[in-house]
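Q: Can someone sanity-check these two? First one:
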Amino acid sequence: MTTLRTVQYVVAFSKKEEAVQGPDNADVVIRIAAKDVELDPTVAFMKGKLKAEGSTRALFEVLWSGEAAAAISRLASHS
């Protein structure tokens, strides 16, 4: 059974400039620096380049489904 989880993605271009997608009260918040968006999100997470706060299950679901890669790519391209 799949439970719908909310995710907020944050791509940081600088300390004061970020692209954000998703609600503030999300189950998991995923952050990555713009300079690291070319990495596969799973690899970035294992290297400590992608940070996550909240539900580990929700994080792994979006990493494995490819949702994280698509969302991060969209946010990074709208700079």
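And here is the second, same format, sequence then tokens:
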Amino acid sequence: MQERAEASFKRKEVQAREATKAMADYQAATAATREKTARLRQLRLAKEATDRAAAEQAAAKPAKPKSAAKPKAAKKRR
């Protein structure tokens, strides 16, 4: 009877240690995901701001007048 109780106790100790390790792994993975997401968000927002500034700058430039296109000489058929 005592052997059975000791085996049960040891099993529960192992489970508790594994649970602690699993929780630490889970929390580390969650933190890494949050950091990566924040970094990617910053990069995306910076790119969007750059794109927006480029679009505004392009819109602010006066349109170049198109030069009169010279008509091309028609090819002669033989």
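A (reply): Looked at the second one. Residues 1-62 form one domain. Helices lie at 2-60.
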